Amino acid sequence: MNTSLEKRGRAAVAALVSIAAAALVLAAPGPAAAGPAPDFYTPPAQLSDAPGDIVRSEPMPIFATVPAADGSWPAAAQLVMYTSRLQDGTPTAVTGTFIDSAHPWRGTGPRPTVVIAPGTSGQGDQCAMSRAFSTGLNAGLDPLFLSANQEAVSAGVWSALGARVFVTDYIGLGTPGVHTYVNRVEQAHAVLDAARAANALSGGDATPLALWGYSQGGGATAAAAELAPSYAPELSIKGVWAGGPTADLEQVLAQIDGNLIGGAIGFAVNGFVARYPELSSVVQERLTPEGRTALDGIGTECIADIIAKRPFLQTRSFTRDGRPLIDNLREVPEALQVLRDQRIGTVAPRVPVLVSSGRNDDTVPYAQARQLAVDWCDRGADVTFRTNELPPLAPGTTFGNHFGPLIADAYLDGEPVRYLLDRFDEVPVAPGCSVT
């Protein structure tokens, strides 16, 4: 890296640290602004067949996430509904948050857009990230347990650097239907069509783009990188960050069972049943009545509810045979095939990708994240894989072992930001793979 790039990289990290610190200060629950009207999230009866079309948009306040003297975000934000497609090609409506930066772009070339794929927020409509941007909180059903908008920091960082930002809500979050949590195809569609929608709002297909995501979001951006050439070939994607990606759901679901967020397994199962109705009888037969009730309840909850009400949930407590639900599903060929169809790593992305993972991540296993990079490398992709060596904290607690690498890599060291800034600046990436 030359001297000017080094200086810009240090400036990016400085911006990251200051905004991250401010967001942490502002994370405590306080008097929340009113969120968007529910009617906004109800799509019209007829939708355009063209993915990425804007259905509607309206101005949107950004609540208490940036350290401006008056508490405002120094940019114009919009709540947006755009078109996308389910895995079978059916048109659907998705919502998201578009933030147009008022800062000068710190890179070279035209102002880019960064599409952010959020980490796990939940399955109830109230968990949509756009609601958190307008109120400052991801609302859980328990009013005493509210979590700060988890994507405010990354959105603030890129806005401060002069990029436009679009944060998708994903399919079925806020809008009608089940949120198909960790569905490889539908998450990719939501991310790529968010990029199309951002282009429609900001002026053209030539806009340089980057995809940014961690955890569920890392799986979404990784899947989008694979599908982009066939699904959205017109997009000018310069680079992708897939942090802590959920690439192999067999491993991920087995890992989180009994973890602080073990109830998130219910998000995945509910989403699979919604798209593969043949699984409904399989799941119902394997669960106790209490298990079926829990699964229904989880479908209405946010991640804050899972942590507050169902911490360290073990699915064996809800199965008829007392074994983990994933073990039951593996025994049924149709269910096992659904899980394996979600595997990311079978198609080489055509754009450079940075994959990162914590060696001691006890929520999204390190081995499957590294295997994603190896699989892509074997298929000829340009991949950089980085290992975070933070020492382990208390096992299963999620916060330190899973979010620690996110904070260290993205917000303190800033490598994902520097990596994507270099891609925007057309700095050549060494062809092939770097796996460390």
Structure report:
This protein folds into 2 domains: 3-246 and 347-435, Alpha/Beta hydrolase fold, catalytic domain (Rossmann fold); 249-341, 434 Repressor (Amino-terminal Domain) (Orthogonal Bundle), CATH 1.10.260. 40% of the residues lie in helices and 17% in strands. The chain has helices at residues 3-25, 129-135, 152-160, 184-202, 216-231, 249-256, 264-275, 278-286, 289-298, 303-309, 325-330, 333-341, 366-378, 399-413, 415-424; strands at 54-59, 75-85, 91-101, 113-117, 137-138, 147-148, 164-168, 208-214, 236-243, 353-358, 383-388, 433-435. The chain has a 10-stranded mixed beta sheet with strand order 1-2-3-7-4-8-9-10-11-12, with helices on both faces. The protein has a two-stranded antiparallel ribbon with strand order 5-6. The protein is globular and about 60 Å long. The chain starts with a helix and ends with a strand. Residues 1-34 form the signal peptide.
Number of domains: 2
Distance between the termini: 19 Å
Query: What is the CATH topology assignment of the largest domain?
Result: Rossmann fold
| Number of DSSP E strands | 12
Give me the CATH superfamily of the largest domain: Alpha/Beta hydrolase fold, catalytic domain
Order of helices and strands: HEEEEHEEHEHEHEHHHHHHHEHEHHE
Anisotropy-based shape: globular
**For the residues shown, what is the average pLDDT?**
87
- Output the strand order for the largest sheet: 1-2-3-7-4-8-9-10-11-12
Identify the CATH architecture of the largest domain.
3-Layer(aba) Sandwich
What integer value in Å does the Rg equal? 20 Å
Which structural class matches the secondary elements?
alpha/beta
- Number of helices in the DSSP assignment: 15
* Main CATH class of the largest domain: Alpha Beta
Ranges with pLDDT <50 over ≥5 residues? 1-33, 64-72, 139-148
Q: Oligomer, anyone?
A: single chain
Strand content: 15-25%
Please estimate the helix content: 25-40%
Main beta-sheet strand count, sense and barrel state: 10 strands, mixed
